[in-house]
Design brief:
two-stranded antiparallel ribbon; 465 residues; 68% helix; mainly alpha; single chain; 2 strands
Length: 465
């Protein structure tokens, strides 16, 4: 890290501070090259003063490091960290102070971002942290592996994880049991990666009409190693999305669909695991791939809707519910699509507005279940007009997406009546452009304007939002 101190930042005027000659019995701090360092951090100090002020100096230095990191001044942060470590080494306290987790985390962050950092420097720093931080050995190994993976060094990362898995250090091995399981899990993930590569090679060879036994053997070997470790980690309550997906992929490839389904059900419904929308997404996708019943698919998406009503799969959920013969499910479908459109990310989703427009139109034509619309609209009539149906949005939607403006205008006309600003602007522009469907839209809304009165509870059309 000292190599970073040779670089000067153009925007920073360097300050060189030289300590005066040492006096007898005094212990002096070395001359430092630290920009903007307060005097009490480099002032010559006696042993007694240093001991008393060490804690305060350390905290101030850490604040400077934090400030430099937040401003992405990595050279400056490295400079302060070097001084911080030197201060620890010169501490007069009787208690031993080894490299703390703070030094490891700060140093790693700086090395990851510094423009002059190299993999060799990073590896050297991490190896020192492994040697000196026994209580954090496996955590450091994991971070080392992540950094190697981010730099495309997959074989080196695998070797690092394998060495960490074989590490033993008395009672510290048992204390770091959770970290050891993570080490094994990530090694299993890399075994899955190797299996996937071998699988692609094997499939390519099969298409060319010849077999490769060595590739097949290597593939099965990777499968066994990956399956053992992935299976173990997903037994522990937690969020293991990537590991679950890889394990299920292995099981599906070898035709063990029952085991895969059991794993996904356990991951989604086990109360010991934290609520996780992705667990229900994976289960739904698996059930859909294997042609399971609509009842099973709806059940999976119902829980997803309860957790994340704005999830993109709510379109699929609404579509399935609308095709149901049961009234309760069709009503739930209306509730689902209204709830999705409450979120800003759905404001310009044509599919969502099309789903709502189609269902609302069916209800209006049949004049059955208008109470469903009224129930959903009552909680939204105070804020949806400004959120979805302003004149500004009408202009923008018309200019950017004619299909979107059409679907929204139909919904706006039914919910807010024929005098709604959004409906009036879009229908006028559509008729002006002589687009047939907009003329039909205008006639439909005018014809069914009494529905708006019933939904809104008004006795006449004189009151307009």
């Amino acid at each position: 890290m000292d190599s970073f101190l040779d670089e000067e930042e153009a925007v920073m005027a360097p300050v060189v501070v030289k300590s005066p000659p040492a006096q007898a019995g005094s212990t002096l701090l070395p001359a430092l090259h630290l920009p903007f360092l307060p005097p009490h951090l480099y002032r010559p100090a006696s042993s007694h003063e240093h001991k008393l002020n060490f804690k305060k100096s350390k905290e101030v230095c850490l604040n400077y490091i934090q400030d430099a990191m937040l401003q992405k001044q990595w050279k400056r942060a490295a400079e302060f960290l070097t001084f911080y470590i030197e201060s620890l080494e010169k501490d007069f306290s009787t208690a031993y102070m080894g490299p703390s987790e703070m030094i490891w985390r700060i140093g790693t962050e700086i090395l990851c971002h510094h423009s002059h950092s190299s993999m060799k420097q990073f590896n050297s720093f991490i190896e020192q942290m492994k040697t000196l931080g026994v209580k954090r050995y496996l955590k450091v190994c994991l971070e080392h592996a992540f950094h190697l993976l981010c730099n495309g060094l997959i074989d080196e990362a695998y070797q690092n994880l394998s060495l960490a898995e074989s590490w033993r250090f008395g009672e510290q091995t048992a204390i770091q049991d959770k970290e050891m399981k993570l080490i094994q899990a990530y090694r299993g993930l890399l075994d899955y990666y190797s299996w996937s590569k071998q699988k692609n090679i094997l499939l390519e060879h099969s298409q060319n009409g010849f077999e490769d036994l060595s590739v097949e053997q290597e593939m099965h070997s990777c499968f066994r190693k990956a399956a053992v470790n992935l299976k173990e980690i997903i037994k522990i309550p937690g969020v293991w999305d990537l590991f679950v997906k890889c394990y299920v992929d292995l099981l599906e490839f070898y035709g063990d669909h029952n085991e895969a389904c059991q794993v996904l059900n356990e991951y989604a419904y086990n109360s010991k695991f934290p609520a996780n929308p992705n667990a229900h997404v994976y289960l739904y996708q698996f059930l859909k791939r294997h042609g399971e019943s609509k009842k099973s698919l709806i059940s999976a998406l119902k829980i997803l809707h309860d957790i994340v009503p704005s999830h993109e799969l709510m379109i699929d959920f609404n579509t399935m519910l609308q095709k149901s013969k049961k009234r309760k499910k069709r009503q739930l479908g209306l509730e689902v699509i209204f709830a999705a459109l409450d979120y800003a990310g759905w404001k310009e989703n044509v599919k969502a507005w099309s789903c709502l427009a189609r269902q609302v139109k069916q209800i209006v034509i049949s004049e059955k279940h208008l109470d469903w619309i009224k129930q959903e609209w009552n909680s939204r009539k105070d804020w949806w007009p400004a959120f979805h149906f302003s004149r500004y949005l009408a202009k923008r939607n018309w200019q950017e997406n004619e299909n979107l403006s059409y679907e929204k205008a139909l919904v706006a006309g039914i919910l807010l009546g024929k005098d709604c600003k959004y409906f009036k602007y879009v229908s006028h522009q559509g008729c002006k452009a002589r687009v047939k469907r907009f003329r039909i839209l205008k006639k439909f809304v005018n014809k069914h304007n009494p529905v708006y009165l019933r939904i809104s509870g008004l006795s006449d059309s004189s009151v307009q939002p």
